[in-house]
Input
Amino acid sequence: MSRGYNIQDGGVVRRILNNPYFSAILFLILFGLIAFLPKIQHFGFYNDDWWQIYGAEISGVERFPEMYASDRPARAYWHALLFILFGSKILPYQLLAVFIRITGALGLFWTLGKVWQNNHKANFFISLIFLLYPGFLEQPNGFDYQIQQVALTSFIFSLGFSVLYFAKTGLRKLFYLLITFLLSLVTFSFMEYYIGLEIYRWLLLGSIYFRNKKPIDWSNLYRFIKKLIPTTFATVIFLIWRVFFFKSTRYTTDVGRIGRDFLESPLISILSIFRRWFGDIADVFLTVWVKRGYKNLSDLSSSEFISAIFLASVCVILFILFLKLSSVRSKSVSEKEPDERKSWIREALLVGFLGAIISLVPINLAEREVLYPIFNRFSLPSSIGVSLFFVALFFLLLSPAWRNGLIGLMIFGSMLSHFTNNTYYANRWIETQNFWQQWAWRVPGLAQGTMLAGFYPEPIQEGYFIWGPANLLYYADSPEISVGAEVLNNDTIKDIQMGNDFEKIFRTFYFKFSFQDSLIFTKPGTDTCLRFIDSNQPELSTRDNPLIVLAAPYSHINQISTQSTLNTAMFDKIISASRQPVTWCYLYQKASLARQIGDWKEIENLYNQALTNNLQPADSIEWFPFLQGLAIQGADDHLGQIAAQINETPYYRYQACQIFRNQDPTASPQVRKQNEKLAALFCTPD
Output
């Protein structure tokens, strides 16, 4: 007869599983690794990473204090320390970000254990929901956005030490107060809008203090405030410094500017704050569980979809295993006396709900709000309260079976959100690597003063998304920004058309360029090649953004220098694109470069490579360099096949006719003969 399961069997494993603290720690770590490690090896640099990497690589870590002087000067020292340790190797940053997130969940479990002792199962549930909270989607952006998690984790541990301060006496009490002060100061110095987190301390300590003091009278309230005040020293000191001494030069973090805007229109400002506040409350409690992030589950490939379902199911199985272990271990929360059970539930509901909504207030006062997907990080302060509130609500209203089932469903949904989000970030970095790899193939060098603008499949929200890597790759030895870039939008298109000067100071980086030296690029899809527009022969795809069409007459291909200044060592260090076999886009980039310098024989050789490898473009506009090279080389046998593919798109046929019929009278006889030949292919009626 087989023996049933018994956690008393075994040695070390038995002791771990039989200890509610150790088993909770083990399971939280497992959940964190399953949620955040998949695809981590494919993550890279994103968004605001670029100006930080540029500044550190060009000027060293000494540049960080200057870069952060405008808003959060303390951040500089964290980033400088990590850059000294890791440099521009992105994987260590990603692993550290996962470690910090898991540590935050462990810290919350430890803190809750100090507030509600012998409440291990519920405390574990709260910490698990907090760990997997799907509102924060910037986890894969481990270089820049790990600081939000560092600040939150620091605050969570400050909560735990403030609880110990309340409970202890003597020198230990002072020691815990000192740790509380230091950790709180770190939190607010890293993220000033985390000042709203302080409400959790007041509510949790209030729950402990008034738990056995009924009714609550003014004398008890006075004694509580008197005891609470020392734990708020860091908050008061930081606020005094921030409001009266620190002068932020960044628009969104300038307290003086926020105050002036409020005083100019108090009623409108109050209404706007409440609009943002109510919307954010709905987002952090409800929308976060159903709103798509950067990517939908339906966007995944078949294999990725199966992987997502598998990992989510594994986490649900782990959750069931934890429940099984808990049921045969020590007494659970459901076995406590009714009054005690209701007491922690009432406290958790109050702390969770008020903490979640009040921690949003500083964000809303600063005219920011939780928006998915781009401003999802503002949901992070509420994640503690949301986790507390939902778990307490489930314990209050639901039977154990329904409660566990609903938490399991939340785990399953959160895991799907994180997997799809990880997939988005992994694919985004792959596309970024592909973009700059094609750039390196096509562009041997960039003329100083070049002003870049354009589109590729991922949003370019700031100019430094482009000028950061461009200067690293082509002017890594220059202390100044040599190549500029700006977002192509309805405003910049006018500057490009008028050839205006462009001057900007950003994070102590200064550059002054002219849109007369614009170079326009476009890569409309992940399956298309990067193209640089030549105003003398604009070749426009049906998939191009309409702004590319408007900017095309002002794009100067001669900003691409044929003298190589590409820093291949920096490319391998920052972009580190994988070495691939010959691709169509490699041949296209080399053919475009060969056309620019008039190396027609090279184009014919590249075309023969395409035939040998059976390579074709996804967009037939990319045939144009080969078309012209083969025409000049007299390879007429292939022209008809290429022309037939181009003619399948009427807009491409129209462009070809216009380009080759409007001959340049100063062109060489060879080119004029080519144009006549090609005009006959595209301008003759069917």
